[in-house]
Amino acid sequence: MLLQAPGLAPGSTRRQAACSVAREASNVRPVTAPAVAPGRTGVSGRQTLPPARVVSVELEAPTLSTSPATVSTKKLFCEPSGQPASAAYGPALTGRPAPLGASIDADTGAINFSVFSSSADAVSLVLFTEADLNAGRATFEIPLDPYVNRTGDVWHIMLPDLRDDLLYGYRVEGLHQEADKEYPGMRHDTRRVVLDPYAVAVLNRRRWGQMGPNLPYGEEGVLGVMPTWPQAAAALPARRGATFDWEGDTPLNLPVESLVIYEAHVRGFTAHASSGVAAPGTYAGMIERLDYLKSLGVNAIELLPVFEFNELEYYSQIPGSDQYRFNFWGYSTVNYFSPMGRFSAAVGNGGPARASCDEFKQLVKECHRRGIEVILDVVFNHTAEGNERGPTISFRGLDNRVYYMLAPGGEYYNYSGCGNTLNCNQPVVRQFILDCLRHWVTEYHVDGFRFDLASILTRAHSAWHPQQYDQETGQRVAMSSGGAIVSAEGIMTDGAGVPTGYPLSDPPLVEAISEDPVLRNTKMIAEAWDCDGLNQVGAFPHYGGRWSEWNGKFRDVVRNFIKGTDGPWAGDFASAICGSPNIYANNTPHETDWWANNGGRQWKGGRGPHASINFVAAHDGFTLADMVSYNTKHNEANGENNRDGEQHNNSWNCGEEGPTAKWDVNRLRQRQMRNLTSALLLSCGVPMINMGDEYGHSKNGNNNTYCHDSELNYLRWDQVAEDPHGFNRFVRLLIHFRRATPALQRTTFVTEKDIQWHGELPNTPDWTETSRLVAFTLHDGKGGGLYVAFNTSHLPKLLQLPRWGGRVWQPLVDTSKVAPYDFLAVDGVLSAEDVAAARRQMAMWTADHTFPVLPWSCVVLQSAPEDPASTSMIKRASQRAAAPAGPSGPANPMTWATNFISGQPPTPSNAPRGGASGASPYGAAQTAYGANGNGNGGNVIGSYGSAATATTSSSAAARAASAAVAGSSRSASAPRVSPAPAAHSIHNNTNGHVAAAAKPAAGASSGGSSRSNWRAMLDEQQQAPAAAAGAGSWGMSSLASADSDNEGMTAAERAALEAAMRENEALRKRLGL
User: Fold this and answer.
1) pLDDT digits (tens, 9 = 90+) for 754-781
2) Which of 366, 527, 549, 1043 is catalytic?
3) Where is the region Disordered (predicted)?
4) pTM
5) Which CATH superfamily groups domain 751-869?
6) Fewer CB atoms inside 10 Å of the end CB: C or N, the chain?
């Protein structure tokens, strides 16, 4: 006669009590269990116990009341269970089946232990002192009575008066497929003491990288696997009164569209010596440096895995190196409820294992104080136990068939690429994941989760038939297919006919997370693909828009367009700028999108731009700096002969592979980094910045630094402080600008009323496959807005700006300019006078509604109300211009426009000039604004393709003239500007303004100081070059003409015009015009 026990099939009932079987098991076992081979080797003759019942206890009569009441179960779960007391705890009690894990019983103050295992024959609670843990031996071992300490598939026991400093784990006895061939998928191993999946803190080694004890691992009675995998144990819960003081903290609940996310690694953030923190590489160290993130402008940090993992998992010497492999990133979870213990300064200094919990809570609280949300990168797709060759740490030893996705023969499905796949949609595992997320939200106040390889969460689980027993003997009955629930074709299924691993259109786990009331305001971000080719970007099951997605397509499109690749990239780039409506709004899938045309059809479209988490670089792959410095990956340092890592990086080295001394290559790289960052931060959607990219961190071309605990993965605080090229300042200002611009923080996609597309002429975009120009205006709904243009061609462009009545365009960003004039904002580097002077330099263009853009450059202009005073010079000149219409300058107007906009703008008054030593305005170290470090700007525009080569050797004159605009308001002690070339005869007058030494000359051409006057002077030189013989090729007669015809000009206006004319003279000479 057969009895049916509960199994994994949907709809199965709870395991029935076997009342006819006498209670023969002993309540007490030896302190140390005998060492046997995996599973039941050596005990095959023992009678297998059938499913057990809960002990029957008389209940107390309920007390009548007018309010609703329930029958007390205190007596049911607090009755003695037979295990004797010891010096460390009192007599054991039956215990409660819920909650799972170790908890303090509210009625008795005792510690309740509860663990799930449906396939175990026996379970023992193992207790350790830290000394015994380090010696690889158990301190106490308490066997659980399967008749008293078991409810269904949950084993439980309660210990009163338990010493607070003890640690615990479980020894689980049962079948193992190597010894019990007819039971594939079973992998119990009594040689191992396994971790409680619900453990709140874990201890085995106290400090990062510390090797475990050197024990005779493998010998009888020695726990642990090897020095890199010593025995681990869980901490007991904190006693009452030891609660953390949150000081009123709650999750911030910032709108997702307002976020600027910073992807960071806890250890990597402060491990470098230049961080200057007291506890480098820890939660406490990160707290010390949070003000940097606040000043940078980010309002969310996405932490790489902080669940307990083993950094020594891959520990071995890297071939050809003196370095060792580490599991640095942490994508290999050991325990999901525990903060990584070796990220804790308190634990490292000898504190209790639970100290890591309070230290992480302090980190979250301090982030919230600064308005920064905390998002955790979680790995529910696989665990550190790997495949059948991996160690038994926790899940495998408790219930391998339940926790992992298996084939009928017990083989591991490997959708994660890491050896195993968590059986996410199995009901027990589903509840485990949900409990874990709730724990981190309620206990740690985290604000969101990013799910690594989230597509695995949508795959059908594997299921097994419930074990059957002979009623008379209590022995297991062998089952066909080893108990696996297979289809007629022999394929593993979920018990309902769906093949294991098949993507589900309504995955139960994702639905449960989406609809959970505790997680209602928690941000959910999916990495919507896995390692078996399933890609669900744009159609991940989002349940009413609850989920955002890492948008890998945004990354690929932006990289391809910015480097100037032929293809559909201009149109795709425009869509990316809008938040990818082609992915998230369009409900018609592309014919090549298998998922969206099948199970994901219902999830396609209907979302807003905040569904897109935009990024151009992340922890895996090239950094931003390497993206513009390497064409191919260089992962030789990983010791795998460069076979690892992504092959398709869509990168461009700008003309030289790796580090180079070529100034023009380095300058172009700086420009491209700014272009990529501008594309990221000026796009709708939610931008994410990779740690270190804000200052240009390089990993030497290595795009897979998972195994390096070194400077490759450390934030270089010394480089942040130096900021030699001003890139950190540029990123910081652009982040703050984005956060202050509501038009970029959208919940709905832009319409034609919000955005217009342009080409070299307004409203004439070019969407061909050879297009290298994308320009647009974005309205702010208040009459203003932005004009943004990306020129990814090797040729400069002269763009005509759209005319908005009563408004003018003011330059804000120009990535072709050297710092600090790449971003015109008043800060500690540029004064208001500096910004105004720089904008006046460009007024000759903006007043005429044109703007020049250099090769591989981005410009951003802001619409502002027209100020008649600021354009009076140009208007007066236009009214008085008498010269007839004619050729407007050289045949290619950009040969002089290129020089004009690439010249070094006015040097700020507080910056070192002319090579003088001093503190960098960007950090603590001396620097120069020019990428060549000579202090004079030196912005050499190299010959990119057929573009004209233009240098700015005369840019000192432009700086002098521009600086003079605000000269009268500066301190007399400010550093002087380097003198202009003597041939130009420029000197400082008593007002601090720059004046020409020459007197006005007769016969000068008429025309104002506007752009038309400049053109007239160009025409004059072309038609009568000899007229300027007395004062250089331009001659002072031209300057005199401007002076005599513009008596109403201010000294500042005259100085700016003189400088621009002299710059143009030098350029024309070089170009042979």
Assistant:
1) 999 999 999 999 999 999 999 999 999 9
2) 527
3) 636-657, 870-920, 967-988, 1020-1049
4) 0.80
5) Golgi alpha-mannosidase II (2.60.40.1180)
6) N
